[in-house]
Design brief:
six-stranded mixed β-sheet; 26 strands; 21% helix; elongated; binds adenosine monophosphate; binds magnesium ion
Length: 426
């Protein structure tokens, strides 16, 4: 962090830590992040989901030659006219086997998709549009194609010398193919971000332990690890820590030594935060916010430092749905920035609400929804029943988040709302 967190937050208009707008909190976080350094060189096949450490500049044109988009006949556009024309077939051009001569006026060449367009030709007529064809000649009907038709131009996918993919890009399946199409087999990527996490709470039991009265199994570590790994980062599980400042401090120190970012859950709501604030202040600068959102009101954010080594810190609320909402809408983007990557954009769509939704103006709400289509095929969303921040099944039953804006009030059935689908193709 180049600037003290307090300076950054003070420079934000309308900054109020006790009722902080979601967008302001996101801005404050974004301004506090300096990307990590350190790169790995990896074979292309191992680069999926990694962040490019440098631009990929195309060393060649892709495709390298003008080639045919169709099976048919390559010809000279200037031979075509307002009436049928019969051209002599001078030879063949197949993919990987170019026609070696220059095509003369009145000639054509039998050509297959992907084959290099022979010298002299500029157009391809698909075979199904040819009127008569035999071994020696083909008759092209009047006005069947325009000159230049069905020709893929050299460099139309990627031009030599151009930036094919930019530094910071999280590589997708198509990116790997694209890099391969340039003949590049290894790429420099950012080293993988290390994210340590632990759960806090005296009531938490780990799987395999008996569930004492009043206790719950710790689910947050499982959700968190999965979200961290889905984003492509290394997850370091530091277990469950009791509500005890000394134990908490010891684990935080351990986490800070090992990781670039530390995420905890639980213990940041009003009463709990009191005894952790002093301890956190000894480790760095951590702000305790009440965010104007639902679920997920309390959250701590800052930077901690141990033996000169810093780590970004997120203290997420304890409730399982609040953990997911605060991770997705605050930590996710921050972790990508810290990784030196551009966060894949959230797919924000509009759908009509199938039902009325109670909503109070003055906070952003992230409700869990099922996105589908109505009788006319238009996008429509319904909620997944009870929306309590402890009801994790409301997430499992959902396929999207319904985002109700800060200023929005009551939503009536049929009104448009914004949704973020959980899954996409990539
Ligand atoms: P807290 O923010 O610590 O007050 O926790 C709020 C609620 O979330 C309490 O009901 C906790 O039992 C629950 N909770 C906290 N941490 C976890 C966890 N790791 N797994 C499941 N539930 C949790
Ligand atoms: Mg707790």
């Amino acid at each position: 962090m180049t600037q003290a967190l307090s300076q950054i937050t003070e420079s934000l208009r309308d900054y109020n830590p006790d009722s902080l707008r979601v967008d302001l909190a996101q801005q404050a976080i974004a301004r506090c992040i300096t990307p990590i350094t350190g790169t790995d060189t990896v074979p292309l096949r191992q680069a999926l989901g990694r962040a490019l450490a440098e631009d990929i500049v195309s060393p060649i044109n892709v495709p390298s030659h003008d080639n045919s988009a169709m099976d048919g006949y390559a010809l000279r556009g200037s031979d075509l006219g307002g009436s049928d024309v019969t051209l002599a077939i001078a030879g063949k051009a197949y993919a990987g086997h170019p026609y070696p001569h220059t095509v003369q006026a009145g000639e054509c060449v039998r050509i297959m998709t992907g084959a290099v367009i022979p010298r002299g030709c500029d157009s391809v007529i698909p075979q199904e549009l040819v009127k008569d064809a035999n071994e020696r000649s083909a008759t092209i009907p009047a006005n069947a194609i325009r000159p230049g038709a069905n020709r893929r131009l050299a460099g139309e996918d990627l031009a030599a010398g151009s930036v094919a993919l930019s530094r910071g890009r999280m590589l997708t399946p198509s990116d790997l193919g694209l890099i391969a199409s340039l003949g590049i087999g290894e790429v420099a990527v950012m080293r993988r971000l290390r994210v340590a996490f632990f759960s806090t709470g005296d009531e938490l039991r780990s799987i395999g332990q008996p569930l004492d009265e009043g206790c719950v199994y710790d689910s947050n570590r499982y959700t968190l690890q999965a979200m961290i790994e889905r984003a492509g980062f290394d997850a370091i599980d530091l277990g469950v820590v009791r509500d005890d400042p000394a134990a908490l401090e010891a684990t935080l120190r351990d986490a800070c030594r090992q990781a670039d970012a530390v995420i905890t859950t639980g213990g940041v709501s009003a009463g709990d935060a009191d005894y952790t604030k002093d301890m956190m202040a000894r480790l760095g600068e951590v702000l305790f916010w009440k965010i104007a959102m639902r679920p997920g009101r309390p959250m701590a954010f800052g930077q901690i430092k141990v033996d000169g080594k810093g780590a970004l810190f997120f203290g997420l609320p304890g409730n399982p749905v609040a953990v997911m909402a605060t991770f997705y809408f605050f930590a996710r983007e921050a972790l990508f920035r810290l990784q030196g990557a551009s966060a894949p954009p959230l797919p924000l769509l509009q759908a009509t609400s199938a039902e009325a939704i109670r909503k109070r103006a003055g906070r952003t709400e992230f409700q869990r929804g099922v996105l589908g289509v109505d009788a006319n095929g238009a996008a429509q969303v319904r909620l997944t029943g009870a929306q309590g921040s402890g009801i994790l099944s409301s997430m499992s039953d959902a396929n999207c988040m319904v985002v109700l804006d800060h200023d929005a009030g009551q939503i009536d059935a049929g009104m448009p709302v914004r949704v973020i689908p959980f899954h996409g193709l990539i």
